[in-house]
Amino acid sequence: MRPDPTDQFDVADQIVAFKRSLAPRRAVLRRAYVEVKNHISRAAEAILADSAAGRPIVPEVDYRHIKDGHVSDATRAAIRKTGCVVVRGVFPASVASAWFDELGEYLDTNRYEAREVEKRGLDKYFAALKAGRPQIFNVYWSKPQVRARQDAKLAETRGFLNHLWRHAGLFDPDRECTYADRVRRRQPGDETLGLSPHMDAGTVERWIDPGYQRVYRHVFAGDWRAYDPFDGTHRLDTREIPSPAVCSMFRTYQSWTALTRQGPGDGTLRLIPIAAGICYVLLRALEDDVPETDLCGAAPGRALGVSAEWHQEMMAGLVSIPEVQPGDTVFWHTDICHAVGDKHAGRDYASVIYIGSAPDCPKNRAYLPRQKEAFVAGRSAPDFAAMDFEVDFAGRATTGDLTPLGLAQMGF
Ligand SMILES: [Fe+2]
Questions:
Q1: What distance in angstroms lies between residue 303's CA and the mean position of ligand 1's atoms?
Q2: How many angstroms is it from 184 CA to the middle of ligand 1?
């Protein structure tokens, strides 16, 4: 079992040093915080007003419009402003529903749940989630997952969304590197899987890592309006503290593909659709009421929590995604705060395949060889707890199931 990497990182000294380095800019940062706090409050009020009036909050795009190049400038602007989007109909509903059934058979045939009970406890980071029957399944190489990841329509969708980023000389928006992730099959009535609001891709690193300091340089200079969440410059220079809770790849978006119908009340994704929210979180932690050794509770190697205790103005903007159908996809920018509903109050499984956007670049390519080995052997993907369920699973995907696109995305 791997040692707990978070034990090795006492970052209090680095936090203090960073805060002291900003002391000369204290007045400027204070003013910037008040500004961004007001901006976030207004954005959250607008979200609540839209919600109350039944207006859509998360932008929506039909896959066919991406394919035909007919996405309006207004929609593009909405995606950049909210940092998220629902793309409808990437896969036919019949295909996604069949994948849901096939995945269920794969898990049953290979006695997944019984085996998970035997291995329970390995993945201490998500131990709390394991109190009941599994809702997240640690499988990476079922045929439906592999087929979805290498699908040309999904590649087109990610290409379109990657092009919203400033990418010249940084990454290739039209080529993906596979980032194999898991499956959610949440049972109706489940109350174990809820995740409180958080951001992934690092916690304290966002303040103390030199790469992240460059990403957020305008924010830390007090000029938060100059910060562009979709500027990829320096994003590949960040160094995250290694942890099973942190993604080693650079993802332009986190994302999943729905295998079942799900929406508000179904224990699915909730978002704070405000791309500037990260500026507020960064500046909030520099205020005087936060202890000098602390960043609003940010803990190395975990997820970056957003809470009512520190982030009241932003928490007000937390909303459910709209109802989605099998074959729809949801994308959210890597700095977007998200959560999973505490209770699944619906009647049917809420199931997704997690498939993020990891465009081709040196950082992402560097992850592929280890992932490729894991695929061939049926082991867990390298970023995740080494549960290795699929090593002897019948019917898992092999290289013979990869299309030319799939082979390229996997680095073969
Ligand atoms: Fe997350």
A1: 7
A2: 13
- DSSP output for 338-400: EEE-S-B-SSS-EEEEE--B-EESHHHHTTHHHHHHHHHHTPPPTTS----GGGG-TT---GG
pLDDT, tens digit, 9 for 90 and up, residues 393-412: 999 999 999 999 999 999 99
Nearest to 165 by CA among 331, 314, 327: 331
**Under 8 Å between Cβ of 252 and 165:** yes
Cα of 318 to ligand 1 centre, how many Å? Answer: 14
Element (H, E) at 34: helix 26-52
User: Beta strand pairing status for 172-176 and 359-360?
Assistant: antiparallel
pLDDT confidence of residue 135: 92
Residue 382's alpha-carbon distances to 149, 239, 366, 369, 371, in angstroms, are 17, 17, 12, 10, 6
Domain boundaries, the chain: 5-410
Instruction: Find all residues with CB under 8 Å of 81, minimum gap 6, and list them.
Output: 274, 275
Q: How many CA atoms lie within 13 A of 35 on its CB side?
A: 13
In the structure encoding, which two tokens stand for residue 375, read together?
Answer: 């695929």
Taking a 5 Å cut-off on Cβ, the residues next to ion ligand 1 are: 200
Strands 338-340 and 195-199: antiparallel
Q: What is the CATH number of domain 5-410?
A: 2.60.120.330
Of 196, 204, 198, nearest in space to 337 by CA? 198
273 in Cβ contact with 84 (< 8 Å): yes
Residue 286, Cα to own-chain centre: how many angstroms? Answer: 25
pLDDT tens sequence across 43-57 = 999 999 999 999 999
Ligand 1 midpoint to CA 394 (Å): 30
Return phi, psi of residue 106, to 5°: -60, -45
Going by C-beta distance under 8 Å and a sequence separation of 6 or more, which residues neighbour residue 315?
A: 197, 272, 306, 307, 308
